[in-house]
Amino acid sequence: MTEFVCNVCGALNRPSEAKLDRESASCTECKSNVRIRGLLLAVSMELFGMELTLPEFPHVKSLRGLGTSDTNPYAAILAEKFDYRNTFYDREPRFDIANPPAHDLGRYEFIISSDVLEHVAPPVETSLRSACQLLKPDGLLIFTVPYSLESSMTEHYADLHQFGFATVGSEVVLVNRTRTGEIQVFEHPVFHSSGGGRSLELREFTENDLEALLLGAGFREVTICAEDYPPFGVVHSECCSLPMVARKGDFTFSIDSVRDVVEEWRALRRKFDAERNGFLRSYWFRLGRKLRWY
């Protein structure tokens, strides 16, 4: 690959192929990686059925979306394009996907989640059921999460309840008090980078178990977005941990959403026509035609 257009910010990139892995920043402008570009490619395909860069998304304010710890710059652009709000578990605006407020149930056309589900409190089924309940009947959960192709997933701390960390010698240990009062000590906890901090890895998914969990939570269909799309720098170096889409139903635009798209198209057409007419009336254009320059 010699170049790609970043579908997050629209910048043209000419990277070395070695940089195109899941986590390495490979856009020179916004520092997006393959995971983020693959996630937003899935958003584009699910909502609009075509490969659009995020700046090319139409403004459809009647589409309501929810972000779970999404990062800038793409969260800010999504907020410009849709009725979208980004949330966090540990800071404002706070949102606990395992225990959403009742007034949010059934409100959203789409939820975006990038490497979050491996960190939610056990049992993970609670968060997946809540995600499904937050969506409208034709809603979409579009997400990434690390997963393997092993035979079964690993839940590191199934009885996690009240916990903290302690340093013993030079090692960090996790200390947990279960709901029944039992004290547990776990060595070598694994952390992932999360914004400016770290998040505890609570589980290691497998592809088969993840699909089964989503279907059990109420989603009708699960798709793994495995295809590369080199024009956007989406070239997967692994056969796992790929973007996924869990569909509650068949997504369709509402009448209001169609109206939003048509009105934006009309506005762009009027702007184009006005600029063209101004150009046609210009002195230099009329002089060039008179002199048969074109």
Top keywords for this entry?
single chain, 294 residues, alpha/beta, Rossmann fold, 2 domains, 3-stranded mixed sheet, 27% strand
Report on this model:
The structure is a single chain. The chain has 294 residues and is an alpha/beta fold. It folds into two domains: 4-156 and 203-252, Vaccinia Virus protein VP39 (Rossmann fold); 161-200, no CATH class. Helix content is 27%, strand content 27%. The protein is built from six helices and 16 strands. It has a six-stranded mixed β-sheet. The protein is elongated, with a radius of gyration of 23 Å. The two termini are 39 Å apart. The model has no long low-confidence stretch (mean pLDDT 91).
Brief overview:
This protein is of the alpha/beta class and 294 residues long.
* Strand order in space, largest sheet: 4-3-5-6-16-15
Share of residues in helices: 25-40%
Number of strands: 16
How would you characterize the largest beta sheet?
6 strands, mixed
Do you know the CATH architecture of the largest domain?
3-Layer(aba) Sandwich
The CATH superfamily of the largest domain bears the name: Vaccinia Virus protein VP39
Could you please say which CATH topology of the largest domain applies here? Rossmann fold
Radius of gyration: 23 Å
Structural class: alpha/beta
Layout of secondary structure:
Blueprint: E1 4-5, E2 12-13, H1 34-48, E3 60-68, H2 74-81, E4 82-87, E5 108-114, H3 124-134, E6 135-144, E7 147-148, E8 154-155, E9 162-168, E10 171-177, E11 183-187, E12 191-194, E13 197-200, E14 203-206, H4 207-216, E15 221-224, E16 244-247, H5 255-280, H6 283-290
Parallel strand pairs: 3-4, 3-5, 5-6, 7-14
Antiparallel strand pairs: 1-2, 6-16, 8-14, 9-10, 10-11, 12-13, 15-16
